UniProtKB/TrEMBL annotation:
Keyword Zinc-finger: no
Family: Belongs to the V-ATPase E subunit family.
Swiss-Prot/TrEMBL keywords: Ion transport, Transport
Protein name, UniProt field: V-type ATP synthase subunit E
Organism: endosymbiont of Tevnia jerichonana
GO molecular function: proton-transporting ATPase activity, rotational mechanism
Amino acid sequence: MNQVEALEQAILDRAKEMAAECKLRAEHGRANILREASDRLQLREEKETLLAKAQAERAYRRRVQADELKLQSRMDHLRWNLVQTVLQRIPERIQALRQEEPLYLELMGRLLARGAAMIEHDELIVEVNEEDHRLLQPIWETFSHNATADKQLRLASEPIRIQGGLRLHTPNNRIRLDQSFEGRLERLQRKIYQVIEENLLPQTSSGLRP
């Protein structure tokens, strides 16, 4: 082989080497591009998945909160209806209790004794409704003495409009105490709600209460 042929062969060999290097680099570059594209695609899919999960969780929480508010509203309504039912039945219970006169007088005596003890005054005026006025007036001296012997209790001459029980006040009307059934019920209304809630309304699994 002459020098010209040797040079041509060297050039061809070098060209083949360069072509092989370029091909290898191109393959590496293609692989890198595909890998980077795959990584970006996976990252995008992960972001979209996380975003979808977050949106689903927010939607679920909103739905749960809305359901809890609806449940709370229904249970509040139920509790209110139960309390009203209890309050509406009380006059019937009072009338039934009046039919058992000894028990009714015992109840009135306790209300009178407790009310008189709460007012620091030696003389008190006691007000009752018309029906109780007719019942108590003939026996007032004995009845009031049994309730409290250390105070002068005077039955008001005119009845008042209450369901039952009594009201007390000093002669100058500066101190008053409401021992009527309505007054006591108003003071006990919160306790009535609590009793109904504890005994008639079931607890929910989430711990919600009406």
